[in-house]
Amino acid sequence: MIKNYIKAARLRTLPLSVSGIIVGASLGNYDYHLSLGGLRMYFPVITSSVFWLAILTTIGFQVLSNFANDYGDGIKGTDDNREGEARMVSSGAITPKQMKMAMIVTGSITLVIALLLIYEAFGKDNFLFSTIFLGLGIASIVAAIKYTVGKSAYGYSGLGDIFVFVFFGLLAVVGTYFLYTKELNFTIFLPAFTVGLLSTAVLNLNNMRDRVNDAKSGKNTLVVKMGASVAKNYHYFLIFGSFLFAVVYVLLKYQSSFQFLFIIAYLPILKHVFFVYKNKEEALLDGELKKVALSTFLFSILFGLGQVL
After folding, report:
1. pLDDT tens, the chain, 309 aa long
2. In order of start, what are the domains of the chain with their CATH numbers?
3. Are the C-beta atoms of residues 132 and 56 closer than 8 Å to each other?
4. In CA terms, which of 171, 195, 225, 265 is 20 to 30 Å from 162?
5. Contact present, 196 and 237 (Cβ < 8 Å)
6. Rounded to an integer, what distance in angstroms lies between the CA atom of residue 188 and that of residue 174?
7. Which among 131, 137, 147 is positioned nearest to 54, based on CA atoms?
């Protein structure tokens, strides 16, 4: 039974989910120590309790989202003929009641970790910031569930891309940066856009793979609404747009050529773009999901590292 829940958690999605945290923590840690007159630092990030609590919180939200997605699509019949890995509710490996309980437990544990994160970052003295981040945490839980659950599930009306861009990109990067610095600057939104666009590209790839089945099941993703040809052009926009925002950030904050280390992560992404361009059989796109997700994870590490070398 535990094996089935692990499958439903879809561990291959976790590196993508923490990419924004790594970028936000790396830049936040760097700017915080710089403001104190300290040396540029990177590796001390991994010794920070704020970093690990943020990672655990994000993983919790991702697992909750995956459970909710499995549950919502399962009870609506969307997963009955889907491509890719089997889903647990639609296959009968986990009952809808059991998955509901898993969602409640996961959401509760994640909220507790989020509260610990908020306390660690702001302490008892900054009530306003604590309240704002508590609200964001609750909004994240609601958004993770409502993606496919309920009659008004926004994943069924083409709004999933906005959710991914906002929560995986803007909230993950900018929010984590703020946990360290307690302030914002407009430049931090540039790498946030990059991570958000790359994360949205993963979702778009998933939706391109499932386009035919989603259309039959009434799941009107953005890909279903746009059609296969436009979805490919949209995918190119997401990929190349993400690269552009990263380059602009480096040019604005340029200190050394090491800041362009992130380009290494785009080499497999470029190969992926050619695959999508040539692709005629949407089911074959399944193997590309891992490539883009892991490339985004690699980008987050190289981008953060490049700022301090």
Report:
1. 788 888 888 888 899 999 999 999 999 988 876 655 554 555 556 668 899 999 999 999 999 999 988 888 888 776 555 555 667 888 888 888 999 999 999 999 999 999 999 999 998 888 899 999 999 999 999 988 888 887 778 888 888 899 999 999 999 999 999 999 999 889 999 999 999 999 999 999 999 998 988 888 888 899 999 999 999 999 999 999 999 999 999 999 998 999 999 999 999 999 999 999 999 888 888 889 999 999 999 999 999 889 877
2. 2-306 (1.10.600)
3. no
4. 265
5. no
6. 6
7. 137
